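Long-time lurker, first post. I've been practising inverse folding by hand and with some scripts of my own, and I keep getting stuck on stretches where the structure tokens seem ambiguous. Below is the full token string for one chain I'm working on. Before anyone asks, I'm not after the true native sequence, just a reasonable design that respects the backbone. If someone could post their per-position residues I'd love to compare against what I wrote down in my notebook.
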């Protein structure tokens, strides 16, 4: 009886920052976090995008100015990041809609749908990047 009382059990509680850095998330968790990050990125940059759209539609001169502005490589990277955010958020959103219908909730199918999100969104973002940087 005394052995059961004195037995050291693992304590669960709040993880420290050093423990969090070594924690390995499952792929479904990575997709979920990136879904939130992509949504936040789109939300915070939406006013900037709408401002650029508004200014580019005022005249032909402003359109040509913003056309030259978007030819900068850094601006193209920002556009590529926004394109990735949209594509990933869309694909992960479809995954979450299926999960709301109680489809794909077990561990195995969750991993498969996570791989599917990456398998669809990353090649599409790569195609956008190739088109953006003038490969085709």
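-- Answer (accepted) --
I ran through it position by position. Result:
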């Amino acid at each position: 009886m005394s052995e059961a009382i004195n037995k050291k059990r693992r304590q669960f509680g709040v993880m420290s920052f050093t423990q969090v850095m070594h924690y390995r998330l499952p792929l479904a968790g990575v997709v979920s976090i990136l879904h939130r990050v992509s949504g936040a990125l789109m939300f915070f940059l939406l006013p900037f995008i709408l401002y650029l759209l508004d200014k580019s539609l005022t005249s032909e001169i402003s359109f040509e100015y913003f056309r030259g502005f978007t030819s900068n490589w850094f601006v193209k990277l920002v556009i590529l990041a926004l394109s990735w955010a949209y594509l990933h958020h869309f694909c992960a959103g479809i995954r979450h809609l299926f999960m709301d219908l109680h489809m794909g909730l077990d561990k195995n199918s969750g991993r498969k749908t996570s791989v599917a999100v990456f398998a669809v969104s990353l090649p599409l973002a790569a195609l956008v990047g190739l088109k953006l940087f003038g490969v085709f």
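A couple of notes from the structure itself: The chain has one domain: 26-132. The chain has a mean pLDDT of 89. Happy to go over any region you disagree with.
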